[in-house]
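Worked example 4.2. Below are the chains of a multi-component assembly; read each line carefully before continuing.
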Amino acid sequence: MGQEKLVEIKNLKQHFKLGRNNVVKAVDGLTFDIYKGETFGLVGESGCGKSTTGRSIIRLYNSTDGEVLFKGENVQGKKNKSELKKFNRQMQMIFQDPYSSLNPRMTVMDIIAEGIDIHGLAKNAEERKAKVYELLETVGLNKEHANRYPHEFSGGQRQRLGIARALAVDPEFIIADEPISALDVSIQAQVVNLMKQLQKEKGLTYLFIAHDLSMVKYISDRIGVMYFGKLVELADADELYKNPVHPYTRSLLSAIPLPDPIYERNRNRIVYDPSQHDTSEEPEFREISPKHWVLCTSKEFEAYKKEQQNSITN
Amino acid sequence: MKKDNILEVDNLKVSFKTHSGEVQAVRGVSFDLKKGETLAIVGESGSGKSVTTKALMGLLPKPHGYIKEGSIMFDDKDITKLKDKNMQSIRGKELAMIFQDPMTSLNPTMKVGKQIMEGLLKHQKLGKEEAKKKAIELMNLVQIPNPEARMKQYPHQFSGGMRQRVVIAMALACNPRILIADEPTTALDVTIQAQILELMKDIQKKVETSIIFITHDLGVVANVADRVAVMYAGKIVEIGTVDEVFYNPKHPYTWGLLGSMPTLESDEEELFAIPGTPPDLIAPPKGDAFAARNKFALEIDFVEEPPMFKVSDTHYAATWLLHEDAPKIEPPESVKKRIESMDHSEEAKR
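Applying the procedure described above to all two chains together yields the following structure tokens:
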């Protein structure tokens, strides 16, 4: 994996005003980079701001503060039409619900070709058709599907259509917001395999947002854990699962049910208690070991570090 | 009925009439439920697991959903033959149900306490004061803090996890002998899911009900179940104790389900996905319904349906691979590896 930064998120904030004196800080000062060609997993419980983060990055929301750099250029802020078009071509999104994210009144051909039309990627109708056919085949569907409507497809097939639509404009970066949580287990594996294969073939970069931790571990190179709008831990996928440091990450990992009855019988769940942190000092994001970042105060930092060293020497 | 069985389902067939024809949602399901045990039914959407439980509860949408054949024995009575009125005296009292989505299974315009008391007033003929006391007791049982105040609140004032606790309290109100939980934790976050599962196991120990647990999450099954039934296309394809089904799976569909979940240790390049989609139950395929998606399918799978083969006294699977003349086929590598890795974890704990 090259360490070239594709997306840099700097102090991103997304606050929603719910009325006077009532502001929801859905995303509150998020900073991380996504490298070219990697899959960055973002996990957390519902309401922690992970989807909002994805939507802010792709400008579905106008961020309150902070910036998102895509190849060094700011995505946020005022843009004219042609600039917007340029970004929209490079960044695409796959949505969670394959039922509500496809227009029921459009044929598959038109759904997939919408991006091609907007960006003028096909010279004539013949080429447009050829492109759609090719995309359908790429995602494991076939030509005959092009003239059908979304309701004629199953959930897994619809998600494939969503992927084909995202791929239509040759993006470099795809934000996948819980792309598999609405699907059955056996279909989930199909879609994940497809996403992995496409990444290899096209050198795509993914931001994979999910709450299913075992799937995230499987697909991601690096993982960020979110809690109440903040990133609490960030590390390589293996490192995060082997040496979780932040108590919230630990509690989240200990809650994953595994298909192993004996393990489940002996399971020790760790309960996260946010009051265990020292609130007199504002916690900061610190690097505890190479490429492993944790949100902590300076005191906690020392304690975590010691713990980390002990676990390595043992 | 056998002595320690509380429920016996025999050759249950449920169909739905639709414009395009008869959908055979459940196509001959047989199982029994023992006193105090938890039986998990797993399968994909459309496999008939929810329809089976709806039939048990007498909640099939009339008139287009109906029981075509088979019997459900409860208390030495075949409850498929009961009249609506008699069924009403059992439903909610002897058989209670927890639904998937706690937002839609609670009445948004009714205070939570009143909803819990409803069953108590109707089935147990308690007075208002008594019912109130019992409701507070129940809320304590499901660990809702500050029950006196919470009783007077509406569902929207509860979080998802708390709402599901209310639903569980309602289900437990009349000390049901069988509790049917239809994906009770699917809508919840992992940490909340873990809490609810712990709570349900705790309560089961205290009140000694039997539980039928419907889910598609094998992790949850491993956590709660004593026995597991795997359903596919309206039939049970494998049934056994949790250990048997997870450590010695026999049916290729079970292999597929296990293989399509990544383990936390695994770093295989590709997941063992089941290709294709489940069959259309308006015209179920001839032979084994899973054959078309099964790379281990034998020729006979496309012609004749496999019967249940016995693996052990408690473990049965419907696949021709278990026939004595069948070629010896091992589970796919990834599934074998997974099972081996689980065995190691077992040794480490000892």
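Take a moment to check your reading of the output against the notes. Residues 5-225 of chain B form a domain with the Rossmann fold fold (CATH 3.40.50.300). Chain B touches chain A through 46 residues (CB under 8 Å).
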